[in-house]
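ARCHIVE CARD
CATEGORY: sequence design from structure
SOURCE FIELD: tokenized fold
FIELD CONTENT:
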């Protein structure tokens, strides 16, 4: 008699459990379609392997258009915390010596490194030469040289003859020639000194080298952070198009085989799918109880 009361709920629970268990398994299995006598069996392959292309596109669109938006990416990249981390990473690289910096450049031979150092030296020398040539060297000579000459001679008698006007008249063409020489030959004259200076400082950390110009580490970090934010802000509108997250996710799922896709889904929803299976057993048990009374 008791068995008659227990059998219904137990059988109902078993049917509910195994029905849902098979339904969950059929989401992933069989992995490929099965044919019998040339006819494809229904529900083969499983729902997820069969709809992988559609699933990949749907997940890609959901991630790219809803879960991760342009505003999310922009806010994260432009946050103070993230920009400071980027600035720290760049600043840390300045602990490299000048030699290590050049040697660390990809796809460069020793000859390429030497050539690059010489190019840097020429660029610095050119900058210095142009700055000097733009200064009024001739005017400085004409203005200051008479006073210096008189002080060196220290002879009042000679000073009576060497008037400022006379000295300036003599020195004017000299100053003009010096100005012209600097403009034409300043770069080749300065370059060897710059090369020697870089060679002497080859093992010095870049950060120490930059500090000589009056820029300390904190200032460098602020500068790098500001430049980073400016660069990201300038391309934020196109950033999502460049990243194309939807396409990345879609291609990633499409490249997975059936086993990898099952592992991915189960790693995310194993607990929920098990709950569905157990819920089938519970519903079957309840329906078995109802059959006893109705």
């Amino acid at each position: 008699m008791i068995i008659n009361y227990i059998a219904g709920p137990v059988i109902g629970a078993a049917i509910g459990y195994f029905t849902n268990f098979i339904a969950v398994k059929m989401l992933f299995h069989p992995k490929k379609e099965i044919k019998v006598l040339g006819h494809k069996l229904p529900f083969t392959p499983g729902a997820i392997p069969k709809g992988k292309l559609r699933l990949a596109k749907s997940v890609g669109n959901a991630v790219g258009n809803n879960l991760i938006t342009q505003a999310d990416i922009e806010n994260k990249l432009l946050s103070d915390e993230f920009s400071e981390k980027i600035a720290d990473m760049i600043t840390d690289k300045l602990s490299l010596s000048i030699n290590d910096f050049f040697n660390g450049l990809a796809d460069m031979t020793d000859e390429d490194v030497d050539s690059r150092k010489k190019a840097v030296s020429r660029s610095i020398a050119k900058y210095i030469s142009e700055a000097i040539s733009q200064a009024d060297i001739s005017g400085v000579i004409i203005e200051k040289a008479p006073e210096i000459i008189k002080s060196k001679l220290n002879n009042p008698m000679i000073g009576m003859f060497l008037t400022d006007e006379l000295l300036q008249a003599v020195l004017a063409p000299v100053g003009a020639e010096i100005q012209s020489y600097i403009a034409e030959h300043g770069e080749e004259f300065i370059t060897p000194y710059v090369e020697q200076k870089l060679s002497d400082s080859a093992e010095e950390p870049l950060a120490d080298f930059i500090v000589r110009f009056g820029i300390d580490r904190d200032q460098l970090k602020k500068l790098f952070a500001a430049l980073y934010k400016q660069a990201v802000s300038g391309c934020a509108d196109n950033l999502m198009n460049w990243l194309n997250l939807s396409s990345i996710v879609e291609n990633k799922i499409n490249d997975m085989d059936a086993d990898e896709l099952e592992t991915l889904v189960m790693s995310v929803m194993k607990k929920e799918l098990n709950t569905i299976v157990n819920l089938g057993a519970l519903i079957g048990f309840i329906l078995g109880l109802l059959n006893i009374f109705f």
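CARD ANNOTATION: The mean pLDDT is 78. The radius of gyration is 40 Å.
SHELF: design records, drawer C
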